[in-house]
TrEMBL record:
It holds the Pfam family ECH_2. Residues 21-358 form the Enoyl-CoA hydratase/isomerase domain. It is an enzyme of class 3 (hydrolase). Keywords: Hydrolase. It comes from the Bacteria. InterPro entries: ClpP/crotonase-like_dom_sf, ECH_dom, HIBYL-CoA-H. It catalyses: 3-hydroxy-2-methylpropanoyl-CoA + H2O = 3-hydroxy-2-methylpropanoate + CoA + H(+). GO terms for molecular function: hydrolase activity. Its EC number is 3.1.2.4. It comes from Oceanobacter antarcticus. This is 3-hydroxyisobutyryl-CoA hydrolase.
């Protein structure tokens, strides 16, 4: 459960009598995993700050080792594992709140600056990507790791992974392997690359900007400042895993993209550590999730953000009622080190009807919880 201090909100004085909002995720002991209560508090506070004439910009950061390792899947597991209507209702509410907050923050018009260091994954990545100014540091590890727990790349992964390089998008979704800030920058998943130690200096310089009551002018101020800080930063940019392995992964992903055939090799003949890590995670992951990735990305590039959120909410509703998700969380978190007993042995053995069921909406279009978004 959350405590009131798991997420804190401050206002920092800035020039001209304006203020900068500061959101801090404070669950370092849990790698800043987001609970339902934290997500709700962030959504409510930013709705207030959107309306405030004094708040000109907002910074979101994670205290301690990382920005956020994801959603609190133990909290999710407790709901699903109850196997009763109330437990499933709590799980449904978690996903509905999470995705709806993602859309809300995407529509935040003021400068929203996210500081991405350490793990930026899963639900935490969904929060990070809502910002209109996204900063990655040399320690960033950005990933959608849901294949490992029998879910799917959510928090608008449908939209984002279908808009980066196709081979890399499929690779990230099928393996859950993280990318560094260097590759995130090349794929426009972040906007700026700074050093881990630049945070306080950045906040200090934000407070000294010549703010005004005009949001477009303030957006330009922030872009100019962050571009300048990037050019001046002493950041040691990580090497690009993608540039080194692009030709190998592109060849590997070709039958996946063209034919929907998910049959990745168990070993990499080039003996590249990053590729081997991805292959290992893929083969340990959920076969049905791997099939879902292909379907998601085939549909995602034609969708708006809201349409992607509607699809993902239906898929999350179904995942909570299919056995792989609770089994994946059990093996990864509840009984650490145990081998998950997936419903299917390989992606090829997953029936088409199973995938259709996992993607079927339980609501008529006009009754979808996001029908009014």
């Amino acid at each position: 459960m959350s405590t009131p201090s798991d997420v804190t909100f401050q206002t920092l004085s800035a020039r001209g009598g304006f203020k900068i909002g500061l959101v801090s995720l404070n669950r370092d002991r849990a790698m800043n995993a987001l609970t339902q209560e934290m997500i709700q508090a962030i959504g409510r506070r930013l709705a207030r700050w959107q309306q405030s004439k004094r708040i000109v910009a907002v910074v979101i950061r994670g205290e301690g080792r990382c920005f956020s390792s994801g959603g609190d899947i133990r909290q999710l597991y407790d709901g699903i594992a109850c196997a009763d209507a109330n437990g499933l209702k709590r799980a449904d509410q978690f996903f509905e709140l999470e995705y709806k907050t993602n859309i809300q923050l995407h529509r935040f018009t003021k400068p929203l600056i996210a500081w991405g260091h350490g793990y930026v994954m899963g639900g935490g990545l969904g929060l990070f990507l809502t910002a209109n100014h996204r900063i990655g540091t040399e320690s960033m590890q950005l990933a959608w790791p849901e294949v490992r727990i029998g879910l799917f790349p959510d928090v608008l992964g449908t939209w984002y992974l279908s808009r980066i390089d196709s081979a890399l998008g499929h690779w990230m979704g099928l393996t859950g392997v993280p990318v560094t800030s260097t590759d995130a920058l090349s794929q426009h998943l972040i906007d700026y690359q700074l050093a881990d130690g630049d945070l306080e200096a950045m906040i200090g310089q934000l407070r000294q900007l010549s703010w005004s009551s005009r949001t477009p002018d303030n957006q330009l101020l922030v872009r100019t400042l962050l571009s300048r800080l990037q050019s001046q930063s002493a950041v040691t940019a990580p090497a690009s895993d993608w540039q080194r392995t692009q030709s190998v992964i592109t060849t590997m992903m070709e039958p996946v993209i063209r034919q929907g055939k998910v049959a990745l090799p168990a070993a990499n003949p080039y003996q590249d550590d990053w590729i081997q890590r991805g292959l290992t995670q893929h083969h340990a992951g959920c076969p049905a999730s791997a099939r879902l990735v292909v379907e998601q990305l085939a549909a995602g590039w034609r969708m708006s953000l809201v349409e992607a959120a509607r699809l993902e909410l239906a898929m999350a509703w179904q995942a909570c009622r299919h056995p792989d998700l609770v089994e994946g969380i059990r093996a990864l978190l509840i009984e650490r080190g145990s081998t998950p007993r997936w419903q299917h042995a390989t992606p090829a053995s997953v029936p088409d009807d199973w995938i259709k069921a996992l993607m079927a909406s339980p609501w008529e279009r006009q009754h979808h919880p996001f029908a009014d978004l």
